[in-house]
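Quick illustration, no need to memorize.
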Amino acid sequence: MWTSSALPYLALGLAAVSGTIAQSYNDIPDIQAYGQHFFYTNNGSQFYLKGVAYQENYNPNGSANNDANTKYTDPLADASKCSRDIPFMKKIFTNVIRVYAIDPTQNHDDCMEQLASNDIYVIADLGEPGTSIDSNNPEWNVALYTRYTAVVDSLSKYKNVIGFFAGNEVVSAQNQTSAAAFVKAAVRDTKAYIKQMNYRKTLGVGYATADVPSRNELAHYFACEPVDGASTSIDFWGYNVYSWCGDSNYEKSSYGERVDFFKDYPVPVFFAEYGCVDGVEGDPPNRPFTEVAVLYGNMTSVFSGGIVYEWFIAENGYGLVDIKDNTVSPYPDFTSLSSQLAKVTPSSTASSAYKPSNSAPACPTVGGTTWAAVASPLPPAVNPQLCDCEVKNLGCTVDSDNQDAYADVFDFICGENQDYCSGIAHNATSGTYGALGGCSPKQQLAWVANQYYQGSSNKQSACDFSGLAKTQSPTTSAGCEALLSAAGTNGLGTVPSPTGQQGTAAASSSSKAAAAGTMAAPGFFNYGKAFFAAYVITALVSGVGMFVL
């Protein structure tokens, strides 16, 4: 085994493919998605991902995405760990890492500089444990938008950032396909934010899917563009694939089926995770990585490489290295991966000789048990200023932060008259959305309480709810009039897109220590008396663990 004590911390940036020696994250050539491939912007040569998932103490699984008791370690904030690991990454020909959660309040200059000097790029997931789109109670709201834009603000200056994942395995079961609408809205708003802030045009936004029964519908849904002039489609598609286990083959692994399906796809496709351990001998499993020859061989006309899961050893048996006392000890599958990658010579296409011909696919239609998200309309844009304006303009507002008591009040008001709650609706199957559906639970409750208050002739007794609410004198702050008018008095109007920097100023530290908690707003898809009967408020407190985004 190689150990870090035997390997000097040298900058290994030879840039064999790009043809340059990268000095920093300011002058490394950025990577651009163009048609079905990635290209270096400096010379137009094709870029294939040879990557590794790089996140300590993390398991990207959606079952615990809102676990308030977990924390995470920002993999790009500790320069000493980066200098320890990067020389070993170069032993497996790494040119990209995937990070699942970064703390936007931390400084990442040192790690990003080290990565750039070694010609290593980054694809970053936008969410974090506790702040992610919930598969079973999906929303696109202020807390998520603030988190996403904060990550974009934090990483946008680094030219070795290829882009971001707006979601990871959000849809992992057949009854969760409606959640795709909220992720697609996140893609739309993140792309709009990058454009509005005049960040690099080459920064892309994609989605990483699990290998689930609805994978084909998901791929079409995220790539389709149902409204002319809109920009809601992904810029690249990540596929978490674990079907090649041990010494499998092209047919048995269904790799051939995936190539056939994606051959007409309009954006780059790559394995966002791969490297199955099932049935592989060893402790930890000694993966032979025989799929590498195929992935970088006869699949390169369609796929742009892949990212091995994962760097750090985990309880699930995945992991290329063991780290003890700050010493890196590669496992046998590290050597296997290095050997396999050393032998590949993927064919290359120059961007000047490539003319994209694939068009956006048709959007899947809602029907039966296979698909439950309409492609248009999507959830409205999230506008934090609108939410603040609405609350200040109400005659009845919520005065309590006792969020455990919110559910009963929602249930009562919406059961009394469903119209009171139409302004906070978010039904992805029918495409019915209220303008306030992206606000915080407290703001949403204030809205429906005021609707009830107005429907009760503004009686003082109609604005109490056991002390949760109180009356106030409505005010209209500067800049609010147009927003309030657009949303409408019934909350069924439009939501103007926010302007100005959104994420950085509002971001709070989210790694190692819990951030101030936000709560999941009421998720509902049906109206009526039982509307909020099963409404469970989930704390969105930052931490690490298994999460979707």
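The chain is about 25% helix and 15% strand.
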